[in-house]
Design a protein that fits this description.
Layout (H helix, E strand, L loop, with lengths): L5 H10 L8 H25 L6 H32 L2 H24 L12 H24 L4 H11 L13 H15 L13 H8 L5 H16 L4 H16 L16 H18 L18 E3 L3 H13 L8 H11 E3 L7 H10 L9 H16 L1
Parallel strand pairs: 1-2
Length: 389
């Protein structure tokens, strides 16, 4: 496998130590040599990368040089920090020139070959420090923007505690190229938020933006889930709580989300955390059914029920077939589920809450069992007779 950075490796190894002293003439000679070699390396990158037959070979070639450039830049940064105490201007100029040239090579690989570039790799320290300075300035503008947009203080604090540690120049944690790109894009989007907006799909312009960008830090997910739970508990009526959860789940499931990774790879996004919370709430509601306080208690065995030797899944499939055949006209499947849960029982004693039946409707496969029309009509007619009394 070709390696294009051998001269840079030797140059750093032989010329950068604590005793190096450069004259003006040597400095100019070295700078010219570095620039010429950089041009040759760029040309080799262009000519050689697609000579490989397999994608894996191209990926190895790009990432090998990405890692070497990162290593060299980190070595030079540490050397430069030591040289500051000696105040050797020529050595500092040469070090800065070489760092800039290596950064140019790295940017070329990242821009020209993004498919093969390792975006999860750690950013070189020099580039990281430079980007963190700029991002910290942008972050303060972002927080002022959130104040201007009157974003809730709890959300502001959760957002700050999620992002600020990533911008700490003294932190020892590694930062990836992908994370820097994500933060830059996120800040740009937040700064474009309108002060007042009626065009909100789920919660607010700020929260909708974070959901759409797969924001996924623990502090913000916790703050947002707690906020939603408070909204649920503020509704005293259990049926209102149920309708709230179902409507919010529907909105989240149809939310347009960008195909990007959030701040912390592998963790639940704000959207997924909210959906998980709503599912848990619905499960608890199903385990504790609502009992009317005004209606007298009547044993369910005394009610006239239609007994079927079917599973709930089969029942959901049959109802979907009825809808596809045009038999359920102007009838919402949620209403059908509530009707069936009160008037139908299976001999297998399965759970027949309307939520369970409704979920089976949405999962039903419609390309089978087309020969059941007559049987389905018998069931529907039986239900109609029972409803009439």
């Amino acid at each position: 496998m070709a390696y294009e950075l051998a001269l840079f490796d030797d140059f750093v190894r032989l010329n950068f130590d604590r005793t190096v002293i450069l004259t003006e003439e040597q400095l100019q000679t070295y700078c010219n040599l570095i620039q010429e070699e950089a041009n040759a390396v760029l040309q080799n990158f262009r000519n050689r990368v697609f000579h490989f037959n397999r994608s894996k070979q191209r990926e190895f070639y790009v990432r090998q040089h990405q890692q070497s450039i990162t290593r060299l830049k980190n070595q030079l940064l540490l050397f430069k920090e030591r040289q500051v105490k000696r105040k050797d201007a020529n050595v500092l100029k040469l070090t800065g020139t070489l760092i800039d040239v290596l950064e140019l090579l790295l940017d070329f690989l990242k821009t020209e070959y993004p498919v093969y570039f390792d975006c999860e790799a750690a950013v070189p320290l020099h580039y990281l420090h430079k980007m963190q300075i700029q991002l910290r300035k942008d972050f303060e503008r972002v927080m002022h923007c959130l104040e201007r947009c009157e974003v809730e203080q709890g959300f502001q604090q959760a957002f700050r505690s999620s992002v600020e540690p990533k911008l700490d120049g003294h932190s020892q944690r590694s930062i990836s190229f992908r994370l820097l790109d994500y933060l830059s894009l996120l800040f740009d989007q937040v700064l474009c938020l309108p002060v007042k907006s009626d065009d909100v799909f789920f919660h607010s312009a700020f929260v909708d933006l974070l959901i759409g960008m797969n924001f996924n830090t623990g502090p913000f997910c916790k703050a947002f889930v707690m906020h939603l739970k408070q909204e649920i508990h503020a509704l005293e009526d259990k049926h209102e709580q149920l309708q709230f959860c179902l409507s919010k789940m529907h909105e989240l499931e149809h939310f347009a989300v960008e195909n990007i990774t959030g701040i912390e790879p592998g963790k639940l996004s704000v959207r997924d955390a909210a959906l998980s919370m709503f599912q848990q709430v619905l499960f608890m509601m199903e385990q504790k059914p609502v009992v009317s306080v005004t209606a007298p208690t009547i044993a369910t065995e005394t009610e006239p029920l239609l007994h079927l030797n079917w599973t709930v899944e089969e029942l959901g499939l049959y109802v979907r077939l009825l809808q596809d055949n045009g038999q359920l006209v102007n009838r919402n499947l949620r209403d059908v589920a509530k009707l069936l849960s009160g008037q139908v029982r299976t001999t297998r004693k399965e759970q027949l809450s309307w939520q369970n039946i409704y979920n089976c409707f949405s999962k039903a496969e419609m390309n089978t069992m087309r020969s059941l029309d007559s049987k389905l009509m018998d069931v529907l007619n039986g239900l109609r007779r029972m409803k009439r009394g």
